[in-house]
Amino acid sequence: MSSLRFKVVEEAFDHKAMPVNIPAERPEAYFAKAVFNRKKMFEYLPKDTYDELIAAIEDKRPISRSLADSVAEGMKRWAIDNGARHYTHWFHPLTDGTAEKHDAFIEHDGKGGVVEEFSGKLLVQQEPDASSFPNGGIRNTFEARGYSAWDISSPAFILDGTLCIPTIFISYTGESLDYKTPLLRALNSVDQAATKVARFFDPEVKHVRSYLGWEQEYFLVDEALYAARPDLVLTGRTLMGHESAKNQQLEDHYFGAIPSRVEAFMLDLEIEAHKLGIPAKTRHNEVAPNQFELAPIFEETNLANDHNLLLMSLMSEVARRHNFRVLLHEKPFAGINGSGKHNNWSLGTDRGTLLFAPGKNAKENLQFITFIVNVMAAVHTHNALLKASIMSATNCHRLGANEAPPAIISIFTGKAVANLLDMLENATAADLADISKKEGVSLGLAQIPELLIDNTDRNRTSPFAFTGNRFEFRAVGSSANCACAMLALNAAVADQLNQFHVAVTARLEAGEQLEEAILAELRPLVKQSKAIHFDGNGYSEEWKEEAARRGLDCETSAPKIFDAYLSTASVDMFARTGVFSKLELEARNEVKWEMYTKKVQIEARVLGDLAINHIIPVATRYRSMLVDNVVKLKELFPGTKGAQIVAHDLETIEKIGAHLEIIKAETDRMIDARKEANRIDSEREKAIAYHDNVVPPMEVIRRHIDKLELMVDNEMWPLPKYRELLFIR
Ligand code: ADP
Ligand code: MG
Predict the structure, then answer these.
(1) C-alpha separations of 578 from 170, 207, 722 in Å
(2) pTM given for the model
(3) Quick one: pLDDT band at residue 100, thresholds 50, 70, 90?
């Protein structure tokens, strides 16, 4: 009897909502309390140090050692005043999550005691033992040790008594070994490129910033139930489990009342987030049972991404106080919605203009359409790369499933922009001349604001949607580091804007009017990138066929999707924008393929163990109970009567036998496929072998286990079922 399952279900139901800890203070009193932001810098740093540091941050300049020493001293005093005993360089290696190694501030004082010290040297640079972080072979050479260096654009913060200093992580030969370095490079390149183009419209623009507002979706599972599911513990998703009779079909969860246990968790999480300066704002139930979302107010992309990574660790920590486990996996449960992390993205000038927002007159709207069209062109040119940027062993379960965008990148614009693009494409020379004279009336440039005000047609099926003043990249996975998607997108757009700037400048030098020159360059872009524009139903089968006809990338195998990083178009674009060298791209793909293989490998092992050690024994035991029953009944009722009575049991015995046979055979096939794949040297080929040969038997095994779940005595079934996992009381 599986008393364990019943026990944990009981325990889960017994978990009451924790009291909601509503602080007496309002958020403004504790917001960013744990962050060494400008206010704290001003308080703790000498005036010249403060001025110099702020200037360096704004101009993106490195800081001198003496400045670092002075900053370190102030930062240490602030940290100690706030209870910190340790410090760490906090960085984003090419794994899931962040890395940190803590050191105490203490040093010998020479008199048998200690003093707490922290120098500029320790603030600015460290050499974490880098050998155990993924590097794709870059660190195999002896001079290529790794070091971490302070990213002055992201403020230090205190987490659990440790001063955390956001850092980049690179090799001594300069190759990036993390996500932050290339993200900063991409943000730099989009700043430069977009500034040049924005100056066509406003010569005073000095900088363009990239903004990111992520929406973090997640599942919560009761801790007791979680602990009884080895698949959740080891892989973050359920590798088996029959659909619950009720799941999301009544559409009663989305925006529904938040269960009080969850609400207590959310409030606790928000308060912790606010203390760390994360502007958490929105919370709601998502579509699937036990699925929720948290979204902050958008911020500059690098900071927003730090905040997302921080929030993901915070979530896991706070959840445990409430006897929950957070599942950030993109597809923890089959048959119901998975989790994404929509990346709302925009560009804005230091003069306060959002470049994807329509303006008040034709000139501002020409700027608007210039940026929209360039984004479309960049996304079109690099659609395969952008798909690669969101792809992973976990997100591949979500994309192409019924609730999520397919594994094809397209852009939804909505009617207003679509009409404008049509007009632009079909404009005559007279129309183009009109822009400078009559406020662009015939092109519709004057009318956009009114048109956009009621642009509420939201297309949830699009992986990349224009939503009024920003684009929403929806294909990003819930567990992903947003940097992957954001660096590819910002770099691609930077490259496109650079080309556009060169082309328009050439026309200006040839004596053309600004507006005419811009329109003349926009028109061919609109034509060329038409294929990326799709406002229809992205979930439909017809779209897959249509997209293939349009020449969009339709590859569905994750390991092959990663190839897009190494296409000539990607390598050249990343080189021109200074984001990645070819060596870095190659190394990163090695890591991507290796990660893919390892994740599937772990899942296959867990599934094999569960099949052999949990499911087969239980189903066999149940079958022998039935066999016993049949034998006894036949003794009791000999002849045809007995045969009639046992007919049903016999049928079940046979069915169970058939499922068991398939599960055993497929488990063997899966193990053999793994062994064979493991012999392959090339990481790419190995990942492909895992995708092609290991994943298919896993799916068959699961299907048959799920069938058994419906047949075997409920009391004997060892693993908590979906109906138990998915409904928080
Ligand atoms: P949705 O209706 O798409 O679910 P949410 O309110 O959940 O919207 O999240 C929208 C996110 O987009 C928030 O993080 C919000 O701050 C962000 N956002 C709003 N405007 C911009 C912008 N111009 N650039 C980037 N992000 C933005
Ligand atoms: Mg939302």
Answers:
(1) 15, 18, 48
(2) 0.95
(3) confident
